[in-house]
Design brief:
Blueprint (H helix, E strand, L loop, with lengths): L2 H11 L11 H8 L2 E3 L5 E3 L8 E4 L2 E4 H10 L6 E4 L12 E4 L1 H10 L13
Antiparallel strand pairs: 1-2, 3-4, 5-6
Length: 123
């Protein structure tokens, strides 16, 4: 089975209403290469889910979750590509939101991933 057909079948079976906009097949192919679904609905790209992954193009490398957001939503990120799911290797466009660094830190504090240190001045 050709890779483009596999990609179409993969996209058809995903649990999302979003389909890629008209994009060259090689972008979607590179994006979905070595991608698998986990039990939380994350599209995990690569073997290790604790690291960000990149898509390599002829003249550059880009973060895979940002490319996924742009391909499936049809618009570029204005700031960061923040994850609702907190999985760095997730490229599911439903799990990514456009936010500032401040939004990302507030999200992490709210979820208990980082804690605010309250320092008291010594008297």
């Amino acid at each position: 089975m050709k890779r483009t057909r596999l990609i179409r079948e993969y996209l058809k079976n995903l649990k999302t209403d979003k389909k890629p906009l008209v994009q060259p097949n090689y972008i979607v192919e590179r994006l979905l290469k070595n991608t698998r679904l986990n039990d939380k609905g994350c599209w995990i790209r690569g073997k290790d889910s604790s690291v960000y992954t990149y898509v390599t193009f002829p003249n550059s490398q880009r973060l895979a979750h940002k490319v996924s957001y742009e391909v499936f939503n049809g618009k570029q990120l204005d700031h960061y590509g923040c994850h609702h799911c907190d999985v760095k290797a997730c490229i599911n466009p439903d799990h990514i939101f456009d936010g500032t660094q401040s939004d990302n830190v507030k999200d992490a504090i709210r979820k208990g991933r980082i804690f605010r240190l309250q320092l008291k001045a010594r008297v």
